[in-house]
Design brief:
- The chain is 82% helix and 0% strand.
- By secondary structure, it is mainly alpha-helical.
- The chain is elongated, with a radius of gyration of 20 Å.
Length: 137
């Protein structure tokens, strides 16, 4: 096998195959997971995301199934992005983890009106948090 044929095969894999999508989604997930978590948790969450990422390499013949896979993988990745964003927001604003008693007690004792007042007061911060999520998606 010549170097030219290897390069052309890699070029096809990059342009037409799942390699570019795999690398882009993996880099996005890594960035967002690192944004909301630290230490060993980053590796654990990347391992948790791995089945969805590896599903991109599974060959599918049907265009409908490929479209369905794209939607499911996008939802899979955005679940990790939403989790990391919420964790980063809570830690930055309240220095609290989402499963802390402070956050759980506040969620249990907050009405819809109080939630609307909170968003009205902090809409700039909420918008600044949600815009990168929308761009990542």
């Amino acid at each position: 096998m010549s170097a030219g044929s290897v390069a052309s095969r890699l070029g096809l894999l990059w342009r037409d195959g799942p390699l570019a999508s795999f690398l882009a989604i993996t880099a996005t997930l890594w960035l967002w997971i690192a944004f909301g978590h630290d230490g060993r948790k980053i590796g654990q969450l990347l391992l948790l995301a791995l089945p969805g990422l590896l599903w991109m390499w599974w060959p599918l013949r049907s265009a409908t199934m490929r479209a369905l896979r794209s939607v499911v993988l996008w939802l899979w990745a955005m679940a990790f992005v939403a989790d990391a964003t919420l964790r980063a927001y809570l830690f930055d604003t309240y220095q609290a983890a989402p499963d802390s008693s402070l956050v759980l007690g506040a969620m249990a004792n907050t009405s819809a009106r109080e939630s609307a007042e909170y968003v009205a007061m902090h809409w700039r911060l909420v918008t600044a948090t949600l815009v990168p999520v929308a761009v990542a998606g």
